[in-house]
Amino acid sequence: MSHIEHKSPSNLHVDKVINTVLNPAAPNIEVPEHVHRSWRRCIDNYKITPDNHFIPYVVEQHILLEHQEAFNERHQLIRHYLDNLYDIIGANGYTLLLTDLNGITLDCRYENLSEDILKQSGLYTGSNWSETIAGTNGIGTCIAEEKSIIIDQGEHFFPVMTGMTCIVSPVFDHTGKLIASLNASILKRVPIAQNKLVAKLVKQYAKKFELLFFMEEFKEHWLLSFSRHGNASEVLSSAMIAINNDGYIVAENINAAELLHKDRGRTIENYSLKEIFDVSFSELLDNFTKKTASSSFLFSVENNIKYSYTIIPPKPVKNIPQQVRANTKTNSIQGKSKHPSLKELMGKDNKTLSIAKKINKVLDTGLHILITGETGTGKEAWARAIHNESERQSKPFIAINCAAIPESLIESELFGYNMGTFTGALKKGKKGKILEANGGTLFLDEIGDMPLLLQTRLLRVLSEFEVVPLGESTPVQLDIQLISATNQNLAKMIETNLFRADLYYRLNGVVLNLPALRYRIDKKELISSLFKDYSKSEMVDVTEEAMSLLYKYYWPGNIRQLINTIRHSIAMSQSEPIAAEHLPTDILHDNSSSAEHTMEVSEHDLLLGSLKNNKWNITLVSKELKMCRATVYRKMKKYDIVPPNVQ
Asked: CA–CA separation, 381 vs 389, rounded Å?
């Protein structure tokens, strides 16, 4: 149902229309830039004009409930503060609205006005203030501009709203993503100074909400709140970072980013506290434990600015680890995070950095993801990192190895079954892995080993986004992020009728091809980093000979094999410097009688990898491999490597 009767905006001179409507007495006076931009969007993009008939749009109850439930946990955190702000401004005639990022009003505070007046003005729970529907208005334009604004009376797009002044501030999460807006509206003319004061309060409370959301999200970490010493205006918008028990920064809020590095291209995540401030984490915790203030201030290492600070312990309060007090990093196998982050996985290799950038572009878009790469390259680790970076991070991550489940059971494992469906079935039935993943992420590893019959059923699931358990007739709707992985060449399998082409094109919304370890330019750094991660001390002594063997090895098992090798070496060395004798025999005897074959395989893969990375540009390949173009062509012929466009 349309709530705006559209009239054609053809032949409109936009600037003239805007200035004439906003300033009829003096049309040449410039209007605020954000108002001008908004009016242009309304006319050029949304195809509406000020004389369109507009009725404030209130969404249906079930839609409102969906939006409220999605924001419920955050709403509970700030409900008290909404009451507090309204106690301050409500007596002066302001109505207070909280909306989500779509402009849907989730909560409303008002008094001395009938519901009819509020509904006519759109100042009501469930009203949709999106700029596409309501034109230029405080909430919709704040969301579009992502900044605090005031839309004063006649600056509104539709005449029905010209008696209203809206004062709005956006609310962001710690990554800078807009999640809500806070609005104070008034239906009468008041002094400019009063609106400015209310605008300051609204902005302060929006910042307070951001702080509360950050504290809740990272409540299991140590929180360090700080502001420029002596600047009282920053108290309500404190900078804050979350720190793990190893003294490493796991997150920063927007205020911290603005204070420490205004360039948002940089981040301090994964840095130690000592790298950012002039105090170590163990010293900070000693002060907290002893309730002393021997270090009353922090100084940033980069610009030596003085900060006042407060430490907030984890909830529930956890014992301060002895290894932290001793100023040593926890590096035991048990201390290492079970699932590495996206940043940890990408390292400093150009190919993995490119993959991470691609992930950030498609994250939460609903595209299916296909991860390819040799065995051991970390396909499941990347899948888990994608899940943990997404909006589904609090929902299930269900991993299925399609090669590990017997063919006779894979259908019931994936789709589930009703009670009594077949002999041997559980009495209560089984939900099935796909339904277990509903709302979260389903990871199908070794997808190339899925039987053709099951490929057909999976294709139907992906086409309809619903699943029918065995023995059931009613489909269940699905909401999943699908990630699949394989070390096989699915295109070749399609040619031999071992894999369905239509399923392949469903799965590969975006393809992430993980590089083999032997091609990674950060291999040395990766080896050193893993030695630190899996050892019990900060410094790991590896002899030059051992490191050389590790660096030159072909690594057919990739990162999985490397991790096992490192754990083996640490165990064998018994805290002594890790030497060649502590390495597994397959590393030591790599240059045995099969060396010639290994060299040829390595040269083939090195050449093929370079050709793919350089998009088959022979000139770039010859420069990268330091060989002339004729040699590149000769070796391509030797290894029967043919460019894809001439196959």
From this structure: 12
At residue 532's C-alpha, the angle toward residues 546 and 519, to 5°, is 60
Mean pLDDT over all residues of the chain? 79
Query: How many whole angstroms separate alpha carbon 407 and alpha carbon 557?
Result: 26
| Tokens describing residue 409 | 């059971």
Tell me which of 1.10.10, 1.20.272, 3.40.50, 3.30.70 is the CATH number of domain 596-646: 1.10.10
The pair of structure tokens assigned to 369 is 């993801």
What CATH number was assigned to the domain covering residues 517-590? 1.10.8.60
Token digits for 273? 């506290």
Residue 525, number of CB atoms within 10 A of its CB: 13
Residue 477, pLDDT score: 87
CA distances from 47 to 5, 7, 14, 23 (A): 11, 8, 11, 22
Q: What is the DSSP letter of 315?
A: S
| pTM for the model | 0.49
Instruction: Provide the sign of the torsion angle of the four alpha carbons 471, 473, 474, 476, taken in this order.
Output: positive
Beta carbons of 378 and 485 less than 8 angstroms apart: no
Element (H, E) at 573: helix 558-573
Per the structure block, which two tokens stand in for 544? 């030059």
CB neighbour list of residue 584: distance below 8 Å, 6 or more residues apart: 565, 568, 569
The 10s digit of each residue's pLDDT in 413-422 is 777 766 544 4
The residue written with tokens 């369905």 in the block is 500
> Contact 104/125 with Cβ under 8 angstroms?
no
At position 163, the amino acid (one-letter code) is G
Q: What is the CA radius of gyration of the chain?
A: 30
The CATH-assigned architecture of domain 342-513 is 3-Layer(aba) Sandwich (3.40)
- Are 334 and 474 within 8 A, CB to CB? no
pLDDT at residue number 154: 86
pLDDT value at residue 327? 35
Query: For 516, which DSSP code?
Result: P
d(CA 471, CA 525): 53
In sequence order, the 6+-apart residues with CB closer than 8 A to the CB of 339 are: 381, 384, 385, 388
One-letter amino acid at 2 equals S
In the chain the first and final C-alpha atoms are separated, in Å, by: 54
**Over residues 295-305, mean pLDDT:** 72
CA-angle at 254, arms to 166 and 186, nearest 5°: 10
Residue the block writes with tokens 């699931």: 461
State residue 601's pLDDT score: 45
Cα separation, 239 vs 237, whole angstroms:
7
Q: ∠ CA 504-505-506 to the nearest 5 degrees?
A: 90
The answer regarding whether domain 54-215 maps to CATH 3.90.930.12 reads: no
Measure the CA–CA gap between 573 and 583, rounded to whole angstroms.
9
For residue 483, how far is the Cα from the chain centroid? 16
Q: What CA–CA distance (Å, rounded) separates 346 from 381? A: 11
C-alpha–C-alpha distance, residues 565 and 567, integer Å: 6
Which string of b and e fits 46-75 if b means at least 16 CB within 10 Å? bebbbebebebbbbeeeebeebbebbeebb
CA distances from 400 to 245, 338, 439 (A): 32, 18, 16
367: left (phi over 0), alpha (psi -120 to 50) or beta: beta
Bridge-based pairing state of the strands 397-401 and 441-445 = parallel
Contacts (Cβ under 8 Å, ≥6 apart) of 432: 412, 413, 414, 415, 416, 417, 467, 469
